[in-house]
């Protein structure tokens, strides 16, 4: 089944701006209508070419505690944690979602990293999306589908400043400006959580 733009559902209008220093972060709950977001979740779960990547941490190889897929324009290899990912061609479904995002946000994207958190034991450690190929002020558009998971932020300057936000099904989190320069974020483990898919759209130079 191929979704059309209409089938992706109505866009929510509410926007919450996180009042954090040296950050530009917006949260839009209900960005995708609930039922349409669930249909999107189920289709991505079934049709995505999920892989478990190996990353290098302090010279040791580790399997990532989640499954992922890198999708985007041809030739846009993406490197992080000493790992290089080559893009899967855009699906019609995600081209449609990308167009919706670009229309709603005014930003342009040429790639998306899709993560599957199979249950509450899957996670993503502290990091910033600050790879050189994302430019000096990366724009990250993060769409959440499925189980609610905690999104935690902490200031890089060791001041102890932190923030936690529950990312809901169908929501959109936008990170712009100097956010990646001054803040790290993570998705910690969460007991008894069900499966969740997260799509982080970005522009690779």
From TrEMBL:
The keyword tRNA processing does not apply. Keywords: Dioxygenase, DNA damage, DNA repair, Iron, Magnesium, Metal-binding, Oxidoreductase. Transmembrane segments: none annotated. Signal peptide: none annotated. One of its GO terms (biological process) is DNA alkylation repair. GO terms for molecular function: catalytic activity, acting on DNA; demethylase activity; dioxygenase activity; hydrolase activity; metal ion binding; oxidoreductase activity, acting on paired donors, with incorporation or reduction of molecular oxygen. Residues 108-205 form the Fe2OG dioxygenase domain. It comes from the Bacteria. This is DNA-N1-methyladenine dioxygenase.
């Amino acid at each position: 089944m191929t979704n059309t733009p209409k089938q992706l559902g109505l866009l929510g209008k509410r926007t919450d701006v996180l009042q954090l220093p040296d950050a530009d972060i917006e949260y839009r709950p209900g960005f995708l209508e609930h039922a349409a977001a669930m249909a999107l979740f189920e289709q991505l779960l079934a049709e995505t070419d999920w892989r478990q990547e190996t990353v290098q941490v302090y010279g040791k190889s580790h399997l990532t505690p989640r499954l992922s897929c890198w999708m985007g324009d041809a030739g846009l290899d993406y490197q992080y944690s000493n790992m290089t990912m080559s893009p899967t061609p855009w699906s019609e479904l995600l081209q449609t979602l990308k167009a919706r995002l670009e229309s709603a946000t005014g930003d342009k994207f040429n790639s998306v990293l899709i993560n599957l958190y199979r249950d509450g034991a899957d996670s993503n450690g502290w990091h910033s999306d600050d790879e050189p190929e994302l430019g000096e002020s990366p724009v990250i558009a993060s769409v959440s589908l499925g189980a609610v998971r905690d999104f935690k932020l902490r200031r890089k300057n060791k001041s102890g400043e932190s923030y936690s936000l529950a990312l809901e099904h169908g929501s959109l989190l936008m990170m712009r400006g100097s956010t990646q320069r001054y803040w790290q974020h993570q998705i910690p483990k969460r007991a008894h959580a069900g499966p969740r898919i997260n799509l982080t759209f970005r522009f690779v130079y």
